[in-house]
Fold these 3 entries.
Entry 1:
Amino acid sequence: MTQTPKKQMKSASRLYAVQALFQMESSGQTIEAVCREFETHRFGATYDEGEFVEGDVDHFRKLVAEAVNWQALIDQMTDRALVAKWPIDRIDPVLRALFRAAGAEMTKTETPPKVVITEFVDVAKAFFPDGKEPKFVNAVLDHMAHEAKPEAF
């Protein structure tokens, strides 16, 4: 099934949000600096390695800002979805960024939880094409969705 350009842009913004959150955590850069870099140098940019897809700037900014603003709440919700021996601070930093972006969209937007889960499982597949991480992401996000929006199920 082919996505419309608007849906493709939203999907790209989710991937970029995960990358931006990862970059902020690993480099200590501010939200303003990272968002500016992504919007200037990644959204729709063309490099020798290929072309970056245009993203939905508003959706990207909202996901990153909400993930930062509500990080403690989202991390607690993620922790409850994880096995007790594996709190969020012990998981891969890319997965941590993914759960934060997905948690922000799941709790701070009107996007249906099933859409959020599907979209972020696809993001996980982009980062971990041969691993078990996409199934893990699906399970954790499903648990988070049932907690965040039980009325959707």
Entry 2:
Amino acid sequence: MIDDTAIRLGWEEWLGLPQLGLPTIKAKVDTGARTSALHAFDIETFGPAARPKVRFAVHPVPGRDDLTIPCSATVVDRREVTSSNGEAEMRYVIETLLDAGDGHSWPIEVTLTDRGGMASRMLLGRQALRDDVIVQPNDKFLRPERSYDVYSAKKIKAVTPKRALRVAVLSREPNNYSTRRIVNAGEERGHVVEVIDTTRCYMAINALAPEIHYDGKRLPRYDAVVPRIGATVTAYGCAVLRQFETLGTYCVNGSDGITASRDKLHAHQVLAAQKIGMPTTAFAASPKDTSNLMGLVGTAPLIVKLLESTQGKGVVLAETKKAAESVIDAFRGLKANFLVQDFVKEAAGEDIRCFVVAGKVVAAMRRKSAGDDFRSNLHRGGTAEAVKITPEERRTAVKAAKAFNLSLAGVDLLRSKDGPKILEVNSSPGFEGIEKATKKDLAGLVFDHIEASVKPVPLKSKRKL
């Protein structure tokens, strides 16, 4: 009697592993094999020892090594498997959902091994077959037909599931609020987030196999890097970040943008090139140019600012021309680089911090100076509150972050009679003040961006998949 409810499989079938981001894969069905196997390479475990995860990559289409699907799953076992040629191999075992089409799916265990030289990227063994599955070894492709076209650039993102990512945070301060928020936000989503001290990294620089080492060991591959590079180690930190970029790791902010934003003179030149409003600024190297330098900016009061200043340090308000000359002479005596800026009186000791993620202002706060201090930095006792910004301020902040190609930025601006004026673009903005002021989960929004950015995008090709 023929069982019409049975799931019939031929010796070769179109199947899917949707939880791994593999909606289509050709599999060999072999009842002679006990264990199922999936083609995988760059296999690497990560995460806590009590519940380890494994990440790996798959070329789902034979002969198309330009199409790589990154995957991750929880390890359920590691066991010795003997292949058909008699060779024994220790393999990681994962559990995932098998999609047989027509609404039929069930969980199976799969071992990970390199099947790059085989025509079938997957072997379906008898342990993976349910009781209602009938294998007809003389037939093939009894299940609904599928196509590799699902891996085209237009369709791949729609079928890619969320997966556990391995993320590095470059920071020398693992216990500060911003670093802890990033770590916690990632772990809440099932990702593994590791804090790496930038200054303890060292690099092997060569054309064939560039590497990054840390505490005597080669660093593993990361899906993404969140740079929180301190101002005092900008040069070395950006060198480490460039190494990650060379390895093809997604970096939330690039080394070029961080370098340019940290150099205040360079940063103002970048803003000026993009026609972005900012206080009138002047810079000179020679002491003979002091009067002319102040004349370019305007009348007192003036702001004299060290190029390396952070958190309001090294920023001086000169109420009179004579006071400005004294400050400039003092900075020159210290052989310090500085610039002179017009003081925006109407700002009245307030500025706006716009938090930009992936080209959008996701939060904004108004910072007020403490007492008679003209600087509104929270580190100097200033206070903060959520604020509604104007469309022009929003556009200006987004344009400023884009000028440095920063996906994550804190853009500081003043409200002047001539419209918003950019003070600074911070490539490592703090989370604490603005999250408390706005009650928004900004670290979570950063991970929304990371998850969207590390999805696989295959290379375009004229050849049909």
Entry 3:
Amino acid sequence: MGVLVRSVALGLAAGGRSAVAVAVPVHAATRGHHGPAARALRGLTTVAVLGEMVTDKLPATPSRLVPVQIGGRIVAGATGAAALAVVDRRGPGAVLVAVLAGGAGAFAGSVGGASWRQWAAEQGPDVLRPDVRAALVEDALVLVTARTLAHGR
């Protein structure tokens, strides 16, 4: 997968769960390393992603489209994509492409995820709140994307 595709994919995932923007490059960089520092880094980033997945479903969690939230996701997507390009030993031009693509992907992922959740919320009651069901689907998509990117496939 090329740097552009990986960066957009990481940005899209970060638009859904911003912690994956840190977790993916960390997991990619520590792949094959089994020391305590590598395990600790992987563990911390995994906990961050799981924590975000839980807090995302709380009713008090603000919309990802408020300026602070979407700005943070764009920065996370751009930074994570740049870090992934560096881990992949790409040159400065590729890192710049990664920054732009990761940021754009995060914006698109944020807007797309919010639209998806809004649509689901309008579908009516169920055992789970419809927006929580949509969030669980979004979690699965983000995790599959993150795992694929972290393993370089």
